[in-house]
Batch of 2 targets.
Target 1
Amino acid sequence: MSRIVLTDIEGTTSAIDFVHRVLFPYARAALPDFVRAHADQADVAAELEAVRAETSSGASLDEVIATLIGWIDEDRKATPLKALQGKIWAEGYRLGAFTAHLYIDSYDQLRAWHRAGVPLYVYSSGSIEAQRLFFRYSVFGDLSSWFRGHFDTTSGGKREAAAYERIAAAIGAPPADILFLSDIEAELDAAKTAGLATAQICRPDTLPACAGRHPVHSGFRTILPT
């Protein structure tokens, strides 16, 4: 039996629609004013410099903002963008502008695993800060204490086997002891290559490609660590 569960968020525990319909538009609208207001703040300034390092070192603040907006529009998994989005969403959550969606079956099963002492971890392309906010301000209340750790693109791309090797090392467990849950086959392929157990979530409302290379589930209730 796998001792540990590592889960994706978008399309897995939660609806993709929430991220694209609520979170992304909120961050896109708020980003210019947020960046201008906090550009001198050390943590924000560091992310802006990271954007310049990926584009043009001499870019003005307005040019950096334009780059970030472009990255949002193309859904680019850029670490500095994800970090800034997390800071913007933090304000939105605290202001009560929205709460994070969670499927009832994922809530029920995560709660059952937590109560049974199964270590739970999250690996998402969203920043670690954004992940923590997501579960702190969920529609079911604050679930943040259920998770023992979070991983984002600083561990590597989700379609790279090396990222899962790093995560297993950080958790301190053999890869085979970790069950990774995701709706994306390419992510599961990478996790399997790294030695993790896998399960694909193929929900009727999203219908991702499900070729059967991994155990397929329509929700969390039928998932049993193996």
Target 2
Amino acid sequence: MARLKPLPAIWLVSDARNDALLERALKRLPRGSGFIFRHYHLLEAQRRARFAALARLARARGHTVALAGTRPEARHWGADLAYGPGGHLVPAHSLREIRRASRAVAILLSPAFPTQSHLGEKPLGPLRFRLLAAHAAAPVIALGGMNACSARRLDWRYWAGIDAFTDMPPAHPRSS
């Protein structure tokens, strides 16, 4: 599971709400992007089958594939990276979590903007996002309300979205 390729700039994150649209979303992603498979809502056998199908499609488009789970699980399932605490791609919402991600290949910092995933939570906004990101020892991937427009607004190279490539009607104008 060595990282031989450069870190993708754009990532699609799976979620129960975008599951039915993932095949189309993976095809819409620019070649060589990243795909983070979470699907916590599925039982393990269903989750493994869904992962296998989506990973095949993602790899056919040159995407890097990450599995939400431990590094050994990701390796066992054939993923390129593990997503989660202690993984290669580590989610963070605070300075303390950023500092804990010392072994990360990249940190997903959220919520950058208002998002369905963190309803009612105050988003970081561009200034706080940049201040926190400056403390990271690894590249920071913006998550939360991210799409091509919000990535330009944030002026940030690395970003990930849940709804950005699925044509889902957002609950908020900047939903991820």
